[in-house]
Amino acid sequence: MNDDAKNFKETFPGWDDYYKDNDVKSMPWYEEKLDHDLENELNTRSLNSGNFLDLGTGPGTQAIQLSNYGFDVTGTDISNSAIERAKKLSDKIDFLVDDILDSKFPDKKFDYIFDRGVFHVFEKDQRAQYLSQIKRILNENGILFLKCMSKEEKNLPDDGMPHKFSKQDIEDFFNSDFEIQKISTSIFKGTLDEFPKALFSVLKKK
Ligand SMILES: C[S@@+](CC[C@H](N)C(=O)[O-])C[C@H]1O[C@@H](n2cnc3c(N)ncnc32)[C@H](O)[C@@H]1O
Questions:
Q1: Which of 4, 113, 118, 198 is 20 to 30 A away from residue 159, measured at CA?
Q2: Is this structure's pTM higher than 0.85?
Q3: Average pLDDT, the chain
């Protein structure tokens, strides 16, 4: 494990305190531009309208970029501090506190969901609840764009948070409820010297 990964694991105080006490620009996942995998996918599919949820928006950068693309964007996070800060970035985006494991959104609210680094923070016994909420708030034929840590990332522990996944893990977990349109190997661009290895998946609700 490298020092960045070790420090993060040992000193992590919980999401709200983390956002309260740190500059978002120093966070490992901070990426000002739209995630390159999502950008490619939106361009290939010519998508630029509809209701888009940036789940676990954190710094809010992905929500801002999606709004610039033309989507109606909602950015949610479990951290009130992250949301209070994000609200100051744009008045076009609905930034609000929502726990995806107990989401208050109505059924079929969103055409698209971007999960960049949220699914992989949940423990195994929380994942079924995540899946049922994502399915519930996604529209018919809605798409989940999922970016999570890859099992090929060797600088992170095998049993820590974030959890790491293989392509087979993603396929096995999502395939009863989602059509697996893509699972590709990628990286998490951000502030670390070496970008961690990631998987980028495109999952269409069945
Ligand atoms: C690795 S960060 C990624 C932030 C952002 N998606 C990005 O890429 O810049 C994970 C985010 O998930 C949020 N989060 C954790 N548990 C959550 C939950 N149960 N519901 C909603 N958000 C959650 C955290 O507060 C944090 O902002």
A1: 113
A2: yes
A3: 95
